Automatic annotation (TrEMBL):
It comes from Levilactobacillus fujinensis. This is YqbQ/XkdQ domain-containing protein. Residues 27-228, 247-349 form the YqbQ/XkdQ domain. Residues 219-236 have a biased composition (Low complexity). Residues 214-237 are annotated as: Disordered.
Length: 352
């Protein structure tokens, strides 16, 4: 295996540069399932009358004759060693663009198609969703944030997790897991190291949903208004406080005794009733009243070991602490291409 194609071209120029001739470092490629652009980083030696990387340059990278990355340069560093450090992103970078949109009742497939067109990127719906989402106004939000809320609502309603992936210049809407890999990552195959952690830093086991209401003011006569003294800022604030009523609904989980009270407060909609507030509290509690598990593996890899695919993990030491052999979703993968070797550090979604 080797870098079989690594090329750059400045828009508007006919000259194409073979970057393999001036490559100074390993090439690192990152994919992430959680609304982040694919990233390629590398270093190039500065050569007199040679290629000087510029922001906006197009980059193509193939490994062992397979397409890996297509994108643009977004950052160039240069130092006393006369080496360029280059960072390029794929087309998902343009989903960081902000906009204000009225989103009608529609599916994530329809919303994805709309924002991809607005972002000006080539796109494709690989896995369609038929779940209808409620209409909403997305004001001054990035396309990533607009889709993040829609993806979350679809997942809560259907149980299906969708994600975005740039496939060599085409941004695709996919459902996870996109592929279930046949290779095993474990003690006897590919694995070179791992770390496993569990945390309750972001856990919530008590949820209070609060609705703020303003008491109805009594009518006053015009005579009383005329005689009323002008209020100071402090008096106005005190009157506003006295005129405010808080209605609270609380849901608590069974982990309070074990972990202590870990509470958040969420605002209810203005006209939400007690039943709706209670349901909101239960929904938040269900999603947040649990430990967060993080599994990181270092492994010999291939190009299918990317965010959004599933791989079988079989590690005896992990089995001893309760994580038996099972398929796990890859949420982030960082590949390092060195000479003829492809290694990857991967993060995986774990549920116990």
């Amino acid at each position: 295996m080797a870098v079989t194609f690594f090329q750059s071209q400045t828009p508007g120029s006919k000259t194409k540069w073979d970057l393999r001739e001036i490559l100074e470092s390993d090439i690192q490629w990152v994919t992430d399932i959680d609304f982040s652009a694919g990233q390629l980083t590398f270093k190039l030696v500065e050569v007199d009358e040679g290629y000087t990387p510029k922001n906006g340059d197009n980059i193509w990278f193939n490994w062992d004759h397979d397409h890996v990355f297509k994108g643009k340069v977004f950052k160039v560093d240069y130092d006393e060693s006369e080496v360029f450090s280059v960072t390029a992103y794929d087309s998902l970078r343009y989903f960081k663009n902000q906009d204000s949109l009225v989103l009608p009742v529609s599916t994530i497939s329809q919303r994805f198609t709309r924002v991809a067109k607005l972002a000006g990127v080539k796109h494709k719906v690989v896995n369609n969703s038929t779940h209808k989402l409620v209409a909403e106004v997305a004001d001054s939000k990035s396309y990533f944030d607009m889709l993040k809320a829609s993806f979350k609502a679809t997942r809560l309603a259907t149980g299906h997790r969708y994600f975005l992936r740039d496939n060599y210049g085409t941004v695709e809407l996919r459902r996870a897991p996109y592929k279930k890999l046949t290779n095993i990552i474990g003690d006897q195959s590919q694995l070179t190291g791992f770390s496993f952690s569990k945390s309750i830093d972001d856990t919530v086991n008590v949820v209070r949903v609060v609705r703020t209401d303003k008491k109805k003011k009594q009518q006053t006569s015009s005579t009383a208004k005329t005689k009323a003294k002008k209020q100071t800022a402090a008096q106005k604030k005190a009157a506003d406080v006295a005129n405010t009523k808080l209605t609270t609904v609380t849901a608590a989980g069974g982990s309070v005794e074990r972990w202590g009270k870990l509470q958040v407060v969420e605002k209810a909609k203005d006209k939400a009733n007690a039943a709706q507030m209670k349901q909101k509290a239960k929904d938040i509690l269900k999603s947040k009243n649990k430990q967060a598990y993080t599994l990181k593996l270092t492994t010999m890899a291939n190009l299918n070991v990317v965010a959004g695919n599933e791989a079988m993990v079989k590690v005896k030491s992990l089995k001893d602490i309760g994580l038996g052999s099972k398929y796990l979703l890859i949420t982030k993968a960082t590949h390092t291409f060195t000479g003829t070797t492809d290694t990857a550090e991967i993060e995986m979604k774990v549920r116990i």
